[in-house]
Structure of DUF7373 domain-containing protein:
Amino acid sequence: MLSVRRARRPGAVALLAAAVLLAGCTSTVEGTASPAATSGSPTSSSPSTTTGSAPPAGQVTPAPEVGPGTGAEARRIAGVTSLPVTVTPDRTDSCFPSGPFGTASGIDGIYFGDGRAGQELDRWGFVAGWGNCSQDAANNATLVLLTEMSDPASAASAADALNEISLDFGGGDYEPVDLPALGVSGALSTGGSDSAGAPSDTIQAWVASDRMLAYTYLDAPTGSAPDLAVAQLQDQIALLAGFLPTPQDQVADLPTDPLGLAGFALTTPGEQTRFTGSYDLEGYLRLAIDPTVERQLLSANGFSGAYYRTSYDESASLDYAVSLYTFPTSAQTNAVYTGFAQLEATAFGGAPFVLPAIPEAPCFAFPSGSDSYYQRCYVGYGSYLASIDVLGLTAADDYGQMNALLPQQRDLIDG
């Protein structure tokens, strides 16, 4: 069964990924590990999948050079990547891997590991992608990976090749399983068990929809995996209705900070990671611990956009994240400020603490391992709300980093 990492809140998901595998990467995206899980919005009708033969040699549109535009396209893809919790409501714990990808080799390293999947994605013109992962209390996980390919025929050819390759993963204990509702054959492994000892199966499948190529890897109680995989991928394809991938020759020109928020998000110590960048509402929700509740809170208060900055300071072995949100009015900012503070203390289980530098700031500490903690504090002013996370502390009451950073963030947004 898939091994995944639990996270208790939005910043921690990204930070764990960055700390374990991505220190020193830029926002142009990279990665490395093995399959995981996610969900999306339900649909009542079976999606139609793209079919097509391999294009003649030389007709795959070359992928653009990896750069800031690649990261922007990956964050566009985030907004239409299926959230596992929508299909399987009890899979509420975030897990790893997740986030943006700008190279096929990064995906291969983090999901598959032997190079074949990355080579196949590159062969068919991989541009960018996003992964979501969620699991239940027994560690039954769902991973959804959505990637952008050269053209519809290339995406379909990649799906065929990758479904065949999937049969060899996991020591060759996968058998083909027909998924007629999707028009593909997936790979099913039976005879496993979850962390509670209940019997479970694992399935993985790839399916194409126009230029987009979707993959799911999930655990499910014995006998139910094929139906759950179909539901997950149908949800994914339904979310793609109306989504237009950026033409390859326009990716480099995509705006990376359309709302001009980067200058108001504190630059934290260390090297920025692949998660850094601008997010719309749907993209941000792919980082959220509770997308349903946070969607309601942000939508009700006119959420305009977010800028998310993450970094890893190798010398201190600490991860940092800054989430900057913008709203039309200060009243709406205040409402979300209060709402997030309530969520941290109740739904997310944070332990409140008083920060000496800004005693009135809502601050919370969380365990992130047997001997590790992370802290989150909020400040708001006018149309801006910001939170700062520090992860990797050896004591929950070690306020040194937060004492220095939160006043700097406050000064940036109060003008």
